[in-house]
Each structure stands twice: as structure tokens, then as C-alpha cells.
């Protein structure tokens, strides 16, 4: 179920009757008390008449505000709107405390039945008149409605600071936290409001919404039912109840839509309720009815972002992505502070493969919705696809912290840890992922294989085992096949590696360049040089022009070929001289230089100097390719002793005398040792070149 189905937008108006300071006119208090008594006796129309007489006989902003509140409470939305308008008009000449209170209440009513921008303007005027907890709370709610979530949180925090014992302030704080995705904190704030006012249905609705956002559907159902009992006229309470019922059990769709439609019956002009009804219709596959509900929400509040966002998402669901994109772009441009609007645009661009374009809106979404794991993870994915690994790692880390049960995000996080060189952390995270009961996703095992394969030193057999498990789960995954092929190559299991590279090409022909390059390497190490050259030619035509790995393989093919030739010549010479009683020969020493232990090779390299030109080829090969630094240096020195007859070795010696390939600024111990040894070779090569050239 989508996140939009797990929560309803926050109930945006705490319409309480007891937020006013002591009034100068006791008549208003007395009239409110009589109206409440008449309502309790089951005569709401008499209560309305009581307050109407008061407003007509002694017109004041307070009187009309009280009448508007009562009319709304008994279900007369149209009458409440007219009375609220009159209260706002009369508040212009009222004292600042009264004007602030009246406008805060009018703003709350507007949110329930009209446009968020209008409610925002009324709340701003209330705060301008006097910064009371009620006025700041009204401002925070209006800012939530208009998707100004950062500003809303600031206003709500000011409301709490101004009145920590104000239920309205605590409730608005909960709404602002919920809008920012800080769901557990929002629940705590709503519960504080309930402690201060046990009959505050808006706070009960907020608790249910916060529980839903934390995937606690059963608890949300219980809280939402309490809210409907506290205020049977609260459309938002019935809407969140319907949403929670569906989240708890999708088979209870009929009950869910019935509850939500009851909310629409008691609050037909509430955009919050209409969007909730639309989401439930959408979950049941009733897309036309969902569209109608979303449009009714926009009739009440043309700028209501959740309704506009829902219509865009419906276009995507119907496969109309090309039509949805400009609408999503328009929405994001008109609601730049809306995390939801930015997330929809970023998600749509990512689905279309435009990750470079998705970066901007997804960064905004992640910032505006710091508690949204989806926003963080999508931003992380966009960073991965645009090759920004550090930012990707930070985004996925936050996504995992927010939603540790999301194994896809944790698997990606483990992969990014490995890519960042944090292999032990990566292995630890990925082992936890695959150890989750019932886990059967190839991605976790493949990412674990990558972590093992790229360790220093690599844990090759562990990598092979992980990749094979991934292959068992998803035998047609070309990336898994490629990873397994590379691990088999690292294990010197060249025949198996070749077969797996070939399978990779079968699964995904676009991987032919990478796979054929691996096959060429494998044939090179098998010393099947004809095959290596043939496959390398294929890879060259399939890889981007100028790929530096192609000449690298070609160079290694030549080295192996020269080694084979030198080895063959040394063996033949040794065989030819086998029965000659005199001392060592070029053939026997050359054979020792190719096959002997390190100490014997060093001795052979030094002894070959006295044989002159016939020893140049085998000494040159040893100078370039031997794995022992001392053997290479001894071979170079012998070439120098031979002098001008060793002129054919000068190009290789010049290559050694050139740049030190082990140069580094911040070196590990092994790098430092290699750098020092190679410097010795460079000095020996320069000296040998001088002697060969006779200078």
C-alpha cells in the first residue's frame, strides 16, 4: 500500500469553544452556556436561535464567532461560513486580543470548508493582532495545509513556547511534525494535546494518523473510532478511520469506504476528507470515482496539493506518464516548499530514467520530508545513478535509520558501504539482510558477493558462494552472472569464468563488451593466446572507443607470448646442452632464471652476463616480468655489463627508467615498499642504458 494510503492529510482545524480569554461582555459567555445546554437536551435549533438573537441584538466579532462555531458544531456549514465572515468583518474594530482570537477561529473554520490560502491570510492577521498560542497554532495549521512545512514547524514550536499548556498549540505541533514525516514525535505531541483536552477530537485524529504513518494500523483504527465517538460531526475522524481500516486489512474495503463516505457526508466541503475518500476508491480500483473525489477536494480548495498530487499519480497509474510529467512539473513549481509535490516529480523523473533531472526535486523532497524513508531512498538512488556515491551513502543511511524494516533500502545501503571501501560494515549489514526470515531476494546476496569480491584481500570463495545463491534465486539476472564470472576469474577458475561470461552475454547482449573483455583475460591467463586475441577483437568493437582496458589486455597477451618464447628457448637450449660436461650454459641458466627459486634466479641473472648477446632476450624478459625485485635488478645490471650487444633491450629499460607507477602521496606500507624498490630499478636501468650506449 502506498504511503498516501497509509495517512490522511492532517486534520487542519482545532475548533474548540474554550480558547478565549475572559470577555468584557458577560452576555456572550451566558449565551454560549445556554446554547450548549439546549444542544445537550437535544434542541440544537434552539441553541442556534439563542446565539443568533445575541448577534443581532449586540453585534460583535465575538458573538458572530460564537455563532459560527455553534453552527458548524451542529452541521450548518453554510450558516457557519456566513457567520464567520461577519465575525471577521467586525473584528477589524475589535481590541487586539479579541481580533486575534476571532481570526484564529475563522481560519480554522476556513480550513475545514475552504481554501488554504484564505485560511493562511486569516491566521497571519490573527498573529499580527496578537501572538497568542491559539493564533500561532492556527498559523501552523494553515501552513501545513499550504505545504509550507518548514515554516509550519517553526510556527507550531512558537505556539508551544507561548503556551505549553495549550491543547491547540500541542495539536498544531503534532500536525507540523506529521507533515515533516517525524511520525513518532507527532504522536507524542498529539497525545500531549489529549492530556490537556480529553475531548479534543482533532488530537485523537492526529494520533490515529501518526500511528498509521508508523504502520500501526490496528492501533490507528482504535484511536480513530474514539475520535468519531468524541465528535460525530468530524469528517476527518471518519476519513482516518476508513483509511486505517483499509490499512489493517485490505479485504475490509467496504467498511473502509463506508466510514470515509460518512466523513464526506458530515463534512462535504472538506478537501482532507474528499482526498481520503478518493484514496480508498483508488485502492478498490474505482478510478473514476477516485477522480471525482479528488476534483471535489479541489473545488473546495483549488490549491490543495494532496488532491493535485493524487490526480497526477492516477495519470501515472493509467500509464499516462507523458501527460503526467508536465502536470507534476507545474505542481512542483507552484508548491516549491511541498515535499510531496517535489517527491512526486522526482519519482516520476526517476521512473523515466532521468536521474539527473530527478536530483533537484528529490533533494528538496528529502529536506522537506526528513522523516520520509521513501524520499531519502529515492534521493539516494538518484545520487547513485548520477555517480555521487558519498551523497548516496548518506541518503541511504538515513533511509535505513527511518525504516529499518525496508530490506531493499538496507541491501542498497550495504552495497554503497562496500563501494565506499567500508567492506566490514557492508558485510555485517548484508548478512543481517539475508538472515531475515523468509528473505528470498537475489539483490542482498549479489551485493554481499560484491562486498566480498572487492575486499582487500578479496574473500573470493565467499563471493562465489554469495553470487551462486543469488543465481539460484534469479538465474536470469545478468548482473549476478557478471559478478559471479569475475569472482571465478579471481579464483583462477578460468574455464568456469569463461562459461559464466558467455551466460552473461546470453542474458543481456548489451553486456557483451564487458563479458568478452573478461573472457579475453581468462584466455590470456590460460595462455591460449590465439583465443585471447580473437575475443579481445570482439570486445574492442563492443566497448566504447578508447577504452583503456583493451590495450592493457593486449599488452599482457604480448608479455605472456614473450615469456612462452623465452621459456621455450631456454628449455631447448638446456636440452641441447644436457649432455655437455662443461659448466653452466645460456640454456641451463635461462631455464633456471625462468623456473628456479628466487635465490637461484638471482644467481642465474648475474651469471648470464658473461654470455653476452645470446643472453639478452631471457635477461630482458626477467628484467620486466620477474616477481622478485632483486631478480629484476640483477637482470638489469647484467644487461648493462653486456654493453652495446644488449642494445635491443634499451626500449624496455627506458620504460623501467620512466615514471614510477607506485608513486603516492599518502602511502600504505606495501605501497611505500613498492615505491622504494621501483626507484632502485629505475636507477639500475638508467645506469645500464648508459653502459649499453657506450656513454
What does this structure look like?
- It is a single chain.
- This protein is mostly helical.
- The protein has a domain at 560-692.
- Helices cover 75% and strands 0% of the residues.
- It contains 38 helices and no strands.
- The model is unreliable at 1-24 (pLDDT under 50).
SSE layout and pairing:
Layout: H1 3-6, H2 26-40, H3 44-57, H4 61-73, H5 77-91, H6 96-113, H7 116-129, H8 133-145, H9 149-162, H10 167-179, H11 183-196, H12 201-213, H13 217-230, H14 235-248, H15 253-266, H16 271-283, H17 287-300, H18 305-317, H19 321-334, H20 339-351, H21 355-368, H22 373-385, H23 389-402, H24 407-419, H25 423-434, H26 442-453, H27 460-473, H28 478-490, H29 494-507, H30 512-525, H31 529-542, H32 549-576, H33 586-595, H34 598-607, H35 616-625, H36 629-642, H37 650-657, H38 669-692
Q: Structural class of the helices, strands and pairings?
A: mainly alpha
Number of helices: 38
Strand portion: under 5%
C-alpha end-to-end distance: 82 Å
Task: Round the mean pLDDT to the nearest integer and report it.
Answer: 86
What's the assembly state of these chains?
A: single chain
Instruction: Output the radius of gyration.
Output: 39 Å
Amino acid at each position: 500500500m502506498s504511503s498516501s494510503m497509509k495517512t490522511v492529510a492532517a486534520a487542519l482545524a482545532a475548533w474548540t469553544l474554550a480558547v478565549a480569554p475572559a470577555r468584557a461582555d458577560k452576555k456572550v459567555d451566558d449565551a454560549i452556556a445556554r446554547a450548549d445546554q439546549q444542544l445537550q437536551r437535544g434542541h440544537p435549533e434552539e441553541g442556534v436561535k439563542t446565539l443568533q438573537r445575541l448577534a443581532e441584538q449586540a453585534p460583535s466579532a465575538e458573538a458572530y464567532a460564537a455563532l459560527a462555531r455553534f453552527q458548524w458544531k451542529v452541521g450548518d456549514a453554510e450558516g457557519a461560513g456566513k457567520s464567520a465572515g461577519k465575525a471577521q468583518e467586525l473584528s477589524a474594530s475589535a481590541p487586539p486580543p479579541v481580533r486575534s482570537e476571532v481570526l484564529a477561529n475563522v481560519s480554522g473554520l476556513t480550513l475545514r470548508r475552504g481554501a488554504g490560502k484564505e485560511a493562511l491570510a486569516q491566521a497571519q492577521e490573527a498573529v499580527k493582532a496578537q501572538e497568542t498560542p491559539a493564533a500561532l497554532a492556527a498559523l501552523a495549521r494553515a501552513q501545513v495545509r499550504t505545504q509550507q512545512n518548514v515554516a509550519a514547524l517553526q510556527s507550531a514550536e512558537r505556539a508551544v513556547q507561548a503556551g505549553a499548556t495549550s491543547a491547540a498549540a500541542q495539536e498544531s505541533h503534532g500536525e507540523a511534525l506529521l507533515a515533516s514525516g517525524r511520525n513518532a514525535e507527532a504522536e507524542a505531541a498529539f497525545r500531549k494535546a489529549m492530556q490537556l483536552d480529553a475531548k479534543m477530537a482533532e488530537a485523537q485524529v492526529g494520533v490515529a494518523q501518526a500511528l498509521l504513518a508508523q504502520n500501526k494500523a490496528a492501533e490507528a483504527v482504535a484511536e480513530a473510532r474514539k475520535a468519531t465517538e468524541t465528535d460525530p460531526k468530524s469528517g476527518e475522524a471518519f476519513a482516518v478511520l476508513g483509511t486505517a481500516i483499509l490499512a489493517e486489512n485490505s479485504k475490509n474495503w467496504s467498511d473502509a469506504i463506508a466510514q470515509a463516505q460518512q466523513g464526506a457526508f458530515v463534512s462535504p466541503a472538506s478537501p482532507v476528507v474528499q482526498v481520503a475518500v478518493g484514496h480508498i476508491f483508488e485502492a478498490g480500483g474505482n478510478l473514476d470515482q477516485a477522480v471525482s473525489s479528488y476534483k471535489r477536494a479541489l473545488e473546495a480548495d483549488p490549491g490543495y496539493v494532496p488532491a493535485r498530487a493524487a490526480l497526477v499519480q492516477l495519470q501515472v497509474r493509467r500509464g499516462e506518464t507523458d501527460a503526467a510529467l508536465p502536470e507534476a512539473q507545474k505542481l512542483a513549481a507552484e508548491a516549491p516548499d511541498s515535499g510531496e509535490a517535489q517527491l512526486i516529480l522526482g519519482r516520476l523523473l526517476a521512473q523515466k530514467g532521468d536521474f539527473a533531472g530527478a536530483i533537484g526535486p528529490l533533494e528538496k523532497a528529502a529536506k522537506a520530508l526528513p522523516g520520509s524513508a521513501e524520499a531519502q531512498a529515492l534521493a539516494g538512488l538518484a545520487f547513485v545513478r548520477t555517480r555521487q556515491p558519498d551523497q548516496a551513502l548518506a541518503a541511504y543511511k538515513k533511509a535505513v535509520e527511518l525504516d529499518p524494516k525496508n530490506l531493499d533500502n538496507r541491501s542498497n545501503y550495504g552495497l554503497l558501504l562496500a563501494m565506499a571501501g567500508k567492506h566490514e560494515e557492508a558485510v555485517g549489514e548484508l548478512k543481517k539482510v539475508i538472515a531475515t526470515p523468509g528473505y528470498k531476494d537475489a539483490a542482498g546476496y549479489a551485493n554481499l558477493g560484491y562486498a566480498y569480491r572487492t575486499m582487500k584481500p578479496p574473500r573470493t570463495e565467499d563471493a562465489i558462494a554469495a553470487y551462486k545463491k543469488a543465481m539460484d534465486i534469479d538465474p536470469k539476472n545478468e548482473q549476478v552472472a557478471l559478478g559471479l564470472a569475475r569472482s571465478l576469474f579471481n579464483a583462477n577458475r578460468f574455464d568456469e569464468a569463461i562459461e559464466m561470461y558467455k551466460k552473461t552475454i546470453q542474458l543481456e547482449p548489451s553486456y557483451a563488451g564487458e563479458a568478452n573483455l573478461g573472457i579475453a583475460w581468462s584466455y590470456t591467463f590460460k595462455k591460449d593466446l590465439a583465443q585471447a586475441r580473437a575475443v579481445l577483437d570482439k570486445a574492442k568493437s563492443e566497448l566504447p572507443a578508447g577504452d583503456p582496458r583493451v590495450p592493457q589486455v593486449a599488452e599482457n597477451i604480448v608479455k605472456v607470448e614473450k615469456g612462452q618464447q623465452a621459456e621455450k628457448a631456454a628449455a631447448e637450449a638446456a636440452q641441447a646442452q644436457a649432455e655437455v660436461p662443461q659448466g653452466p650454459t645460456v640454456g641451463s641458466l635461462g631455464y633456471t632464471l625462468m623456473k628456479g627459486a628466487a635465490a637461484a634466479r638471482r644467481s642465474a641473472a648475474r651469471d648470464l652476463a658473461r654470455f653476452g648477446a645470446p643472453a639478452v632476450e631471457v635477461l630482458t624478459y626477467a628484467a620486466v616480468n620477474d616477481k622478485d625485485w632483486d631478480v629484476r635488478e640483477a637482470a638489469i645490471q647484467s644487461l648493462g655489463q653486456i654493453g652495446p650487444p644488449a642494445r635491443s633491450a634499451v626500449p624496455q629499460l627506458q620504460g623501467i627508467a620512466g615514471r614510477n607507477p607506485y608513486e603516492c602521496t599518502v602511502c600504505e606500507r606495501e605501497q611505500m615498499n613498492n615505491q622504494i624498490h621501483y626507484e632502485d630499478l629505475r636507477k639500475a636501468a638508467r645506469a645500464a642504458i648508459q653502459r649499453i650506449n657506450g656513454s
